[in-house]
Amino acid sequence: GAANAKYGGDDFPSPDANLTKRQLTDLPSVIGMTIDQATQTLETAGFSVTVGDAVDGVEASGTIVQQDPGAGRIAGGTTVTIRPSNGQGIAVPAVSGKPDAAVTALRAAGFGQVTTSCTAKDDAPADGTVTGTDPAAGTIVSRTAAISVQYQAKTCGGR
């Protein structure tokens, strides 16, 4: 206050519009590339790269399966995190029919921890019918993941 009253002064000038404009750049998708290919592609396009922890994937170990942010137009110079597959993933298969057959199919697919979860329903078959899995069919998980077969049966006491 007192300095302004004594010395006065003008407002600061507005910055040049070219200096405050956000420059958007095309961020390419590097999904499916090796770590080296993805890093080179992203750095050539003007982005910084961080390699994150490997994640469960059905792709060969070292193949990029996740990128954040995803492909699109973003501010140049952004740091892009890429995550390679560890090669240890497996897709949860779709199962249906009888719960026992579903458990057998999941164990045959390589899952060791398979449990069942029953919901009683009056109009369901006595021996049950599969309604889904948790995690859902198609989800990529580790072979050591616990899979729950969900089913409906007239009564649930027998399992």
Keyphrases for this structure?
elongated, Trypsin Inhibitor V, Chain A, alpha/beta, three-stranded mixed sheet, 159 residues, 4 helices
Give an overview of the whole structure:
With 159 residues, the protein is an alpha/beta fold. Helices cover 19% and strands 32% of the residues. The chain is built from four helices and ten strands. The chain has a three-stranded mixed β-sheet with strand order 2-5-3, with helices on one face. The longest helix is centred in the N-terminal third of the chain and has 10 residues, at 35-44. It is elongated.
Question: Helices, strands, pairings?
Answer:
Elements: H1 2-7, H2 17-20, E1 24-27, H3 35-44, E2 48-51, E3 64-68, E4 72-75, E5 79-84, E6 89-91, H4 99-108, E7 113-120, E8 129-134, E9 140-142, E10 146-153
Parallel strand pairs: 2-5, 7-10
Antiparallel strand pairs: 1-4, 3-5, 6-9, 8-10
